[in-house]
Amino acid sequence: MRYVSTRGAAPVLDFRGATLAGLASDGGLYVPETWPTLSTDEIAALAGLSYADTAVRIMLPFVGDCLTEDELRGLCHAAYGRFSHVAVTPLVQLDHDQWLLELFHGPTLAFKDVALQLLGLLFERFLTGTDKRLTIIGATSGDTGSAAIDAVAGREGVDIFMLHPVGRVSEVQRRQMTTVLAPNVHNIAIEGDFDTAQALVKTMFATPALADTFALSAVNSINWARLMAQVVYYFYAAVRLGGPGKPVAFSVPTGNFGDVFAGYVASRMGLPIAKLVVATNVNDILHRALTNGDYSRGLVEQTATPSMDIQVSSNFERLLFDLGGRDGKAQAAQMAGFDADGAMRLTNAQQQGAAGLFGSERVDGDDMAMAMRWAHEKAGEIVDPHTAIGLAAARRQSLPDVPIVTLATAHPAKFVDAVERATGARPTLPARVGDLFEREERYVTLPATLAAVGDYVAAHARPSR
């Protein structure tokens, strides 16, 4: 398996190289050169397998000869052995056709754990026996940071620098990052929004003074290995609801498009998906792009769903590349135009390619709260605000005889005030993180400039040997 950049000018890499690099050197994102496919019989054979063994079957084609099947199985069992539910990502029924896929049973109570617990082990595996030191730089709108930090804290050969927008993540989200005091963990609060933090990360990857001194890598969903791991739970859920003999739909609360792109990959691999519903909040760049081809950046509005307060969705480039004929030069020009003008139009091929599989919904704060109340009063389930965005979008769909699964992306106790306002119920943190508010915090606050953040990284990272 070889990996190519969406912008066509970076070296072709194997799975190990793409995982350690994260972002391609030409500013693009790595994708497999071809999509592996599973037959109907191979998908049906997933029924009854554990989550870890399902993960091995789905991910093995992507790793090529960089890992043996036994090595991959060992990593998967180690990664998912830390989850508090034996099913790892259990399904919960809400009514006759609405389901939740609970993705928050990992160490930091968010769906990012599903991928990042594995990614941390992959980093360690690929660095073992080398003298290379990895410097991870990431940006988070809430959950990626804590999941990535938990996955690599204290690991040999890795330093992590995580940027979060000051005042724009929940207190639980912030504390899950800033109370990890391992010497290789560095938290940076920047005076700006998530899009600014993400742009700074991309700029640092392209800054020679940093890129030539440190072996930079990414844990955001720009890293292909993260998306690969997320593909698994689409298969795991679908086969438990009748797949591949029966199609299943998914509603995905999304900001950066990574989680829903994993569903697109599952579809390309042969999983019968009736529809992927892209559920956005009022920061609706993806909804506008999918409904009328208008991918234009607006001002970020701060909401009760901070992980979705995004106006630049990095992973959307992967979809545009695949739907646009995999023309790296054309994709690079399209993204350069967006970077310059803050706006672009999807091509006819891109719009038509997306129309068959994707739907989208824009959900405002009132509809989010109504979805939270409905889940609580009618199904006895408490959901977090992000999941409620997905649930509100799912309940607008008309898909006769097709079960629709909303991805439940975070534990409701991570957003306790918003949940209580909507439902009157105040969720509590699980016992394993119950002392979170008693732990010491450590982080720095910096202006959102390359000079400030780049200098901090350079001063605290350890150069690659």
Automatic annotation (TrEMBL):
- Matching InterPro entries, A to Z? Ser/Thr_deHydtase_PyrdxlP-BS (IPR000634), Thr_synth_N (IPR029144), Thr_synth_N_sf (IPR037158), Thr_synthase-like (IPR004450), Threonine_Synthase (IPR051166), TrpB-like_PALP_sf (IPR036052)
Which EC number(s) does the record attach to this protein?
A: 4.2.3.1
Keyword Mitochondrion applies: no
Entry-linked Pfam families? THR4_C (PF24857), Thr_synth_N (PF14821)
* Cytoplasm in keyword set: no
UniProt pathway: Amino-acid biosynthesis
Q: Which cofactor does it need?
A: pyridoxal 5'-phosphate
| EC class | lyase
* Transmembrane annotation, as ranges: none
Threonine synthase N-terminal domain segment(s): 2-80
Question: Which keywords annotate this record?
Answer: Amino-acid biosynthesis, Lyase, Pyridoxal phosphate
- Catalytic reaction(s) noted: O-phospho-L-homoserine + H2O = L-threonine + phosphate
Q: Which family does it belong to?
A: Belongs to the threonine synthase family.
Q: Which PANTHER family match?
A: THREONINE SYNTHASE FAMILY MEMBER (PTHR42690), THREONINE SYNTHASE-LIKE 2 (PTHR42690:SF1)
* Protein name, as recorded: Threonine synthase
